[in-house]
Every structure is written in structure tokens, then in C-alpha cells.
Amino acid sequence: MDRDLFAHKADSYERNARRVDNVDGIARAIRDAVPLHRAMHLMDFGSGTGLLLERLAPQVGRITAVDISPAMNRQLEAKRAALGCEVVLCQVDLEATDIEGGFDGIVSSMSLHHVRDVPALLARFHRLLAPGGFIALSDLDTEDGSFHSEDTGVFHFGFDREAIAAAAREAGFRDVAVRDASVVRKPERDYPVFLLLGRR
């Protein structure tokens, strides 16, 4: 990507109360679904400013934060020392570049709709996990395109739950399930958010 599509959002990203409330719900859903412990090394895909990982950090030992946006990574770097575990920043386009794997889990909050080829990414996640490792990936249910005020860098208007579960199974995941994670409440309508779970 030649330009940082999130550069204009990074400084104010965490001042959006709806966004923060949504990530609170997603983090609770992940903790309810997956037993976390201090020996775990997680990857947070599309980590942004660290809203999700800072809520999981006290329960795990290490998190690799993967995000393509330099501006978002600078925001996360500024608070890295105050987080509850070791955090390693990895500025990379994971659709195009491999990284070292062996993760105990891969989590993500509202990033899949920015990915062109989600089935290919799920297959990459499967390869990056240690045996028995998990995915806990949240995003929007299918919506009419009204969620974003502008759609630059948005490739999907949410996802059908059955279709994304099928894609996870096709990528090799077992024990695949999709459950409610959160709801983003906007004046025009509510936007349900799911959590996709699976095991390698």
C-alpha cells in the first residue's frame, strides 16, 4: 500500500465512544470463548492503536501486533510500555508477506472487511498457528454499506456468518463457531458484530 489510509484517523481513533464500546464487547466475547493464560503468545491482526490487545494483554504473556498503518503503529508504540504484557510491533501487509508463526492464538477486531481475499488470509492464519491454536476474529454482519462514512480501503460490507464459517473450515479450522460479540449502535441503525472461532 503506497499511502497510509488511516493516517487521518490515528490521532483521534480512540476518542470514538462507539468504537471503544464495541471493542470492549469484543474483548469480553473473546475472554468468554477462549481460556487465556500467561504462557500464551497471541497475534492481533489489524491491531491499530491497540484497543483490543490492551484489553487482553493482562491475561497473556506476549502479543505480536500486526498492522500495515505507520500512523496507527505510532499510537500503539506510544503506550506500549504501559500494556500488561510484552508487545512486539510488526508493520507488515500480511496479505502479501509471511511472518514467523507458532502463535497460540490470532485475534482481530473489525479488520477483516479491509482484506481483499479473506479465505486466503484464513489459510495463512491456519499456517501461522501452533497446533491447537485458535482464531477469534470479529467483524460486522452483512450490512448495506452505510456503516462507513467513506469506503476507501473497505472491500466487504460485512460478512454472512454461514459463509465465513465455511471459509474457516475450508482453510482447515475445526470446531468452527460464530457467535454474537457486540453491537455498534448508530443513529440510523444498529450494526451487529460477530466473533468467528476455530482451532487448528
How would you explain this protein's 3D organization?
By secondary structure, this protein is an alpha/beta fold. It has one domain: 3-Layer(aba) Sandwich (Rossmann fold). It is 27% helix and 28% strand. It is built from 5 helices and 7 strands. The chain has a 7-stranded mixed sheet. Strand 4, helix 4 and strand 5 form a beta-alpha-beta unit. Helix 4 (118-128) packs across helix 5. It is globular. The model has no long low-confidence stretch (mean pLDDT 91).
Query: What structural category arises from helix and sheet content?
Result: alpha/beta
Assigned CATH class: Alpha Beta
Shape: globular
**Main β-sheet: number of strands, strand sense, barrel status?**
7 strands, mixed
Helix count? 5
Radius of gyration: 15 Å
| Side-by-side strand order of the widest sheet | 3-2-1-4-5-7-6
CATH topology: Rossmann fold
β-strand number: 7
In short:
The chain contains 5 helices and 7 strands.
Topology, pairings included?
Blueprint: H1 17-33, E1 41-45, H2 51-56, E2 62-66, H3 70-79, E3 86-90, E4 103-109, H4 118-128, E5 129-140, H5 161-170, E6 174-185, E7 190-199
Parallel strand pairs: 1-2, 1-4, 2-3, 4-5
Antiparallel strand pairs: 5-7, 6-7
Output the keywords.
200 residues; alpha/beta; Rossmann fold; 7-stranded mixed β-sheet; 7 strands; globular
